[in-house]
Amino acid sequence: MLPRVVICASGEGSNFTAMVLASRAGSLPVAIAGLIVDRVGAPVIDRARREGVPHALIAPAQFDSRDRWDQAVTSQLQAWRADWVALAGYLNLVGPAVLAAFPGRVVNSHPALLPRFGGKGMYGDRVHAAVLAAGESETGVTIHLIDEVFDRGQIIAQAKVPVLAGDSIERLAERVKAREREFYPEVLARLVAPSLQKFTP
Ligand code: GRF
Fold it and tell me: Rounded distance, CA 159 to CA 37, Å?
């Protein structure tokens, strides 16, 4: 039986689609069991509908505490019998109930080379703006496990992406995202494949 992966996303969803297509093509040998979204109207919801992947909108604002929200997310992951949780542009800090239920099984992609250019508030274009402001000659993609602090968990793999002369935030972001859409499914495939459990970075 294929490992079951639930994707959590807040925004555009290009990584979501990349994982769904890779799983369908067989290069990512998992079943995408569902999508959890934490923002009303996120474009990723339409992508899930198009791809026929079930989705659940579970936003913190729908609950009277973050603990209840965290419990609801955990219950949905369990209802979909998730083996792994893959964050793909998910802006909320994953709660302690999810981490306790899926220890070492929550994966994230960050659009820079952690530990640099990470941490609270460092997401989307802010990351690329900081890379450009620092005058870096390369940036990249980091796939890492999640713990209770933003962008601090164990690094599994990194891919480098060059920063080119005259790059704008948009051009750099698109170059990083293009690499990320290939790299995240590849790394996830190695991580979840039972025969490759000893995979090391
Ligand atoms: C990705 O670059 C991811 O690394 C970051 O947010 C972006 C999400 O893009 N955490 P998308 O929603 O998958 O298109």
Answer: 27
